[in-house]
Amino acid sequence: MDKKDTSKSSNKAYIILFIIGLILFIPSAIISHTHQLKGLEARIFYDINNLPNTYKTVVLWTSSALGAYYPIVLCVGIPLIFRYYRLAWRFFVTVGGAGAVAEIAKRIVREPRPVVLLKGHLHERAIEKGLTSFPSAHESVATAMALTLWLILPNKWKWISVLWIIIVGFSRIYLGVHTPLDIVGGFGVGAMAVSFVKLLPDKIKTKCKLDDHKPLLQKGW
Question: pTM, whole model, 2 decimals?
Answer without folding.
Answer: 0.93
